[in-house]
């Protein structure tokens, strides 16, 4: 239990930093270029590893499920998230991510037979209350020119993320977390490649070394490190319990946004962050599983 939880904590910490990195990247280059670059970097790194480890055999019945998983995330997920970060702050986008566990728990209850206990549900709702408070306590800045639109796009990304997590949980019984992460990167790169031919793909903001470094960070540490560790943790824990760690992202993203981007972090947000942490602690109270090992 300790190792999967440690992997999940590390993953969400890196994930929280991805909001800052993505914010820097999309303010320098178009979202299409940023996401393709991110997926391309990850694909190259995974290909180098595959030359030594080999490629596992995929069962024909799983091909459609694997492709659907990759369509949910990274393909559609990052379209919504990249544009969301053009209109809202990194910290607010991270806050919206906390609704993901509730979505996953609801879908996992129906499709995977996972039955969260009352304590788990209570923890989820406490965490979401903390997220709402965290958002309400924030102040408008130049980092969020249209937060309503940006947060709505981030919510759409969470819907895609829900489909991804449930499908990943189903596939993790047959395939390694690292293989599934590699598939995400390769399919994502191929998905965004045609977009480079579109004129809008080359409408940039303020290109520079900061944007390039952000893309490299996203493709290596986030796409490989965070996803790999999260997929490992998810393969060892129930989907609804593993997804509860996502509630740490708004707190970590808000702190990083304040320190690295100068986004406002008020006293109210600090108190709300504590509520989110309490909710995460409550949600780890366990759950009953039916037909899920």
UniProtKB/TrEMBL annotation:
GO terms for cellular component: membrane. SUPFAM superfamilies: Multidrug resistance efflux transporter EmrE (SSF103481). Residues 5-135, 150-282 form the EamA domain. The chain crosses the membrane at residues 26-51, 63-80, 92-113, 120-136, 148-167, 179-202, 208-230, 242-262, 268-287. The keyword Transmembrane helix applies. It is a multi-pass membrane protein. It is found in: Membrane. InterPro entries: AA-Vitamin_Transporters, EamA_dom, EmrE-like. Keywords: Membrane, Transmembrane, Transmembrane helix. Signal peptide: none annotated. Pfam families: EamA (PF00892). It comes from the Bacteria. Belongs to the EamA transporter family. This is EamA family transporter. It comes from Oceanidesulfovibrio indonesiensis.
């Amino acid at each position: 239990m300790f190792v999967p939880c440690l992997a999940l904590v590390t993953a969400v910490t890196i994930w929280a930093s991805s909001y800052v990195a993505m914010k820097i990247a999309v303010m320098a280059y178009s979202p299409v270029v940023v996401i393709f670059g991110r997926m391309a970097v990850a694909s190259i790194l995974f290909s180098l590893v595959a030359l030594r480890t080999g490629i596992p055999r995929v069962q024909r019945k799983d091909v459609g499920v694997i492709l659907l998983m990759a369509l949910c995330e990274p393909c559609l997920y990052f379209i919504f998230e990249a544009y969301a970060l053009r209109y809202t702050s990194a910290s607010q986008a991270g806050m919206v991510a906390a609704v993901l566990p509730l979505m996953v728990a609801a879908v996992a209850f129906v499709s995977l037979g996972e039955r969260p206990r009352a304590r788990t549900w209570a923890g989820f709702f406490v965490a979401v209350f903390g997220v709402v408070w965290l958002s309400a306590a924030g102040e408008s800045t130049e980092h969020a020119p249209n937060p309503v639109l940006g947060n709505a796009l981030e919510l759409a990304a969470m819907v895609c993320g829900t489909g991804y997590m449930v499908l990943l949980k189903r596939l993790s019984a047959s395939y390694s977390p690292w293989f599934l992460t590699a598939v995400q990167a390769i399919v994502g790169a191929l998905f965004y490649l045609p977009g480079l031919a579109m004129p809008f793909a080359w409408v940039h903001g303020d290109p520079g070394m900061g944007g390039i470094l952000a893309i490299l960070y996203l493709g290596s540490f986030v796409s490989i490190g965070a996803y790999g560790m999260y997929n490992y943790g998810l393969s060892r824990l129930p989907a609804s319990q593993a997804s509860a760690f996502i509630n740490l992202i708004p707190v970590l993203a808000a702190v990083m946004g304040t320190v690295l981007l100068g986004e406002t972090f008020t006293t109210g947000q600090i108190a709300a962050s504590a509520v989110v942490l309490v909710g995460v602690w409550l949600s780890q109270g366990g759950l009953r599983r039916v037909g899920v090992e």
